[in-house]
């Protein structure tokens, strides 16, 4: 991996504007999932260092919140501009540590920068309100102020965008932000820290720390100074963080697991539906929280759709993400491959059929064949658990009532998709689906302007959009008695 801007390759934590090591010298390797090679290492900071990071954030936030929204916006816009300027380097780094194809990595960098651009503008629009007084001698108004020191714990599948989707609204609101990236993908986070320093974000306002997730997480959750925690990752860890944050009544944003149904009715445009499945299911080799996890196809269109889907899946090119033409990278680790295998074995044991793929790829390591499974039923793990891999399980259904009931039969509620040309159904079914986001005749719904998030056990709160700032602000009501 050759970077033009070599300063982007950082192997130390960004603490109070300095690049720091662990005080006990402990470090952890960063592995390229495609080749299994060590590409770098990062510190394992101690709990005492994590506590000091919180103190630095508290100190830095005083000056940052005193800046105007316009002043914060100027620095943030510079940060976004630098990200786009160095997008090729950032993408190369991201592919090296996460595995996704370079084109997807580049797309993620642009997506990540879009959150900074969006919230830099939102920083100028943090407005309170003046209320109609209930007493003639009084005046009443509402201020909006930054919540204070924030922390973000982020996943490996979008090592850049999941950081900026949290750091951008926090910084825009006038908060300081401490980022703890996934242990698998810290280098992208540290590179974003480097560009934040170059953009002029003051020391301590944005800090990026690496270390034991459990130990650092406990320090962040237990500190009363950390007023807000934003987490993206599994529902299991989300529950742990909720429990650990309860003693300090921390404000939480949780973007958790999904189990997205992808519904295709008989009247759908078949080619658009197949394209939608490919875009949703195989993005990041199926490792996104909004990937189609269950594909429901109405009985009339089932044979034709499955035939076309298999044809398109067999065109996918599996390989190391930096190789030209590769459209499917490796899974993040051996555990991810084991989960895919477990779900496939379970389905086959319950009568499902492999229509293409179904085996580890000849490249070895954590590469897996893009797979389509037919004859899938609700008795199988595909129906209940997030597979998080390049496997398209296809269920059939008879009618609308049946498929809505099946789609809603899960504790998750992040994203859902449906393809139909029936205008009434394009309203009726999304309104009946218990999900935070619904794609209608599209498999790609994520952007910076829409409120991203789930219901039920897929999380709390929304990220992006005009709503994304709300969780980084507190309202303060002032009641002024005009008399002497
Ligand atoms: N809803 C969303 O927007 C969204 C986005 C990406 C991933 N996800 C979900 O995340 C899962 C896959 O990502 P993952 O494997 O990185 O998830 P994960 O929950 O294992 O890890 C996410 C982050 O939490 C940290 N972590 C793990 N255990 C912790 C603990 N005890 N205390 C504090 N921090 C801890 C990890 O180091 C990492 O930084 C999938 O379920 C996926 O659906 C959801
Ligand atoms: O994996 C979860 C991400 O939030 C997916 S997306 O990039 O926001 O669509």
TrEMBL record:
CDD domains: ALDH_F5_SSADH_GabD (cd07103). Keywords: Oxidoreductase, Plasmid. GO terms for biological process: gamma-aminobutyric acid catabolic process. Residues 19-477 form the Aldehyde dehydrogenase domain. The keyword Oxidoreductase applies. SUPFAM superfamilies: ALDH-like (SSF53720). Pfam families: Aldedh. GO terms for molecular function: succinate-semialdehyde dehydrogenase (NAD+) activity. GO terms for cellular component: cytosol. The active site is at residue 255. Belongs to the aldehyde dehydrogenase family. This is Succinate-semialdehyde dehydrogenase (NADP(+)). It comes from Rahnella sikkimica.
């Amino acid at each position: 991996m050759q970077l033009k801007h070599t300063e982007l390759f950082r192997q130390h934590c960004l603490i109070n504007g300095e690049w720091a090591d662990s005080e006990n010298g402990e470090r952890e390797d960063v592995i390229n999932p495609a080749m299994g090679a060590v590409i770098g290492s990062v510190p394992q900071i101690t709990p005492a260092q994590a506590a000091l990071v919180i103190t630095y954030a508290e100190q830095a936030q005083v000056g940052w919140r005193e800046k105007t929204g316009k002043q914060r916006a100027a620095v943030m816009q510079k940060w976004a501009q630098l990200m786009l300027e160095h997008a090729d380097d950032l993408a190369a780094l991201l592919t090296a540590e996460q595995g996704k194809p370079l084109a997807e990595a580049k797309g993620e960098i642009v997506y990540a920068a879009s959150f900074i651009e969006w919230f830099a503008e939102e920083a100028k629009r943090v407005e309170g309100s003046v209320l109609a007084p209930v007493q003639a001698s009084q005046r009443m108004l509402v201020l909006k102020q930054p919540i204070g020191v924030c922390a973000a714990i982020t996943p490996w599948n979008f090592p850049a965008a999941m950081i900026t989707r949290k750091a951008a609204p926090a910084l825009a609101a006038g908060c300081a932000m401490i980022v703890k990236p996934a242990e698998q993908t810290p280098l992208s986070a540290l590179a974003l820290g480097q560009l934040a320093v170059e953009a002029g974000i003051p020391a301590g306002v944005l800090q990026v720390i690496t270390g034991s997730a459990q130990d650092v997480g406990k320090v962040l959750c237990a500190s009363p100074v950390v007023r807000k925690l934003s987490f993206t990752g599994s529902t299991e860890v989300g529950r742990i963080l909720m429990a650990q944050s309860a003693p300090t009544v921390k404000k939480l944003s949780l973007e958790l697991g999904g189990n997205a149904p992808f519904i295709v009715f008989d009247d759908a445009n078949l080619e658009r539906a197949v394209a939608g499945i490919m875009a949703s299911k195989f993005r990041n080799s199926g490792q996104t929280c909004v990937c189609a996890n269950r594909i429901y196809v109405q009985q009339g269109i089932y044979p034709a759709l499955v035939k076309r889907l298999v044809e398109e899946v067999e065109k996918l090119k599996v390989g190391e993400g930096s190789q030209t033409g590769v459209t499917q990278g490796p899974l993040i680790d051996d555990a991810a491959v084991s989960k895919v295998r477990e779900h496939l074995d379970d389905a086959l044991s319950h009568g499902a059929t492999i229509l293409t793929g179904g085996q580890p790829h000849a490249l070895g390591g954590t590469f897996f064949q893009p797979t389509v499974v037919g004859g899938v039923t609700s008795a199988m793990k595909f129906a209940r658990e997030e597979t998080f891999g390049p496997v398209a399980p296809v269920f059939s259904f008879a009618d609308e009532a049946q498929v809505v009931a099946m789609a809603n039969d899960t504790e998750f509620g992040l994203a859902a998709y449906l393809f139909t040309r029936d205008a009434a159904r394009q309203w009726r079914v999304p309104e009946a689906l218990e999900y935070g986001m619904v794609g209608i005749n599209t498999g790609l719904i994520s952007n910076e302007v829409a409120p991203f998030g789930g219901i039920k056990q897929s999380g709390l709160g929304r990220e992006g959009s005009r709503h994304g700032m709300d969780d980084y602000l507190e309202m303060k009501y002032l009641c002024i008695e005009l008399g002497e």
